[in-house]
Amino acid sequence: MSTDKPILDKLLPKHRVKVLDALSTSLPLQVTANLISYEEYWRRCCVERWPVCDVSRYGSSWKRLFFERHLENLIERFIPDVTEIRTICEAVELSKDYVKRLDIQQLLPPVRVEIRRDEECDEISDEGSEVGGDLPSMDHFDFNLIANSLHGLEELHLVYGVKGCGMNFEWNLFRFTERDCNLLADTFKTFRDLKVFRLHKSKVDDDKARILIRSLLDHPSLVHLDLSHNQISDRGARAIGKLLNQSQLHILNLCNNNVGLHGAKAIAHALSKNTVLNTLNLRLNHIGDEGGQELSNALLKNTTLVTLHLGSNELSEPTATVLAHVLTQNTTLKSISLSSNRIGLDGGKHLLEGMSENKTLLEFDLRLTDVGQESEFFINQVLRSNQERARLQSQPKPAPSQTQALPQMY
């Protein structure tokens, strides 16, 4: 088939549709990528390849869906030193105008080479490229190889691990190496339009978090950072605190890390000066009551945070006491979660006192906090009142009728 698109354009619309409907979905992408914009053709390509296709997640574009998932599949199956990098580069050149998001759910390490050992060699370390020696590296796909072609990338979601490894499980399959980290940090110099970066379930520790954060300082576009389900503790959290006030982050997710008191203090200090962050998720960390009080006090100064998640953080009555004071003054918070913390009956009473003066909070998750049924009931009553007030305020005011607008004539 000729790649001369004007020939196709010269056909009458009904004839063009008939030709496109008859085209095989197995045609080479080198032919169809830039020649065919007909959405029905790309819909057929998608549904024949993937059983579930939610086109609404791709700006309602079947062509974008196809090329994003096609490129994701190639990267997820890439084996360093085995797969031809040319295959990825050619696919990127064909899809670069259509790819805005990459959701990579696994990154494969190199194939492990069996090394014969004599009696003197007892173990082979699983440290990969970070060990140094003669062992094969455990570094993954280098995104710098495709970064220059994907200037329009807006979202990048990564997991440095293997899904469905089954009985072949080894810790090496889930290692984010130092070289991986440095190479990934370098890509942010090219991905200047990146708005969402998510690196989760990848064993990111403090040192690696600091390398990544350093490369994200003053990034012009990033608004959503998700480093959940990693191993970031206080040193990494201090770097993130610095990032908060040298970026335009609106959403920060540090769920399920190891952030403690000092990390919470750093984030609280940044929060007290921050004017853009609206969502903070610190669920499943270890900030304790001192950290909880620091964050609560920061909310007395902050006027932009809308959603705060502090579930399962070893909090109790002292945090509830300070947060109750915040509830009487803060007018921007709309959602708070304290679930799975031992707030207790007295803490519940303090929160109820604070809520009795609050007119803006719409959600308050107090599951598994032992605040008592009575406090929880009356807090929910206040929430319902706030929700109804917000609903009424969001309704457009009716325009004055003509009879009301005109002065009466006598």
UniProtKB/TrEMBL annotation:
A Pfam entry, by short name: LRR_6
Stretches for region Disordered: 389-410
Major subcellular site: cytoplasm
A Gene Ontology term for the protein's cellular component: cytoskeleton
InterPro entries per record: DRC5, Leu-rich_rpt, LRR_dom_sf
Position of the signal peptide: none
PANTHER family per record: DYNEIN REGULATORY COMPLEX SUBUNIT 5, YNEIN REGULATORY COMPLEX SUBUNIT 5
Subcellular location: Cytoplasm, Cytoskeleton
Keyword flag Ribosomal protein: no
GO biological process: microtubule-based movement
UniProt xrefs under SUPFAM superfamilies: RNI-like
Compositional bias of kind Polar residues: 392-410
The protein's name: T-complex-associated testis-expressed protein 1
Residue spans crossing the bilayer: none
Source organism (scientific name): Aquarana catesbeiana (American bullfrog)
Key words of the record: Cytoplasm, Cytoskeleton
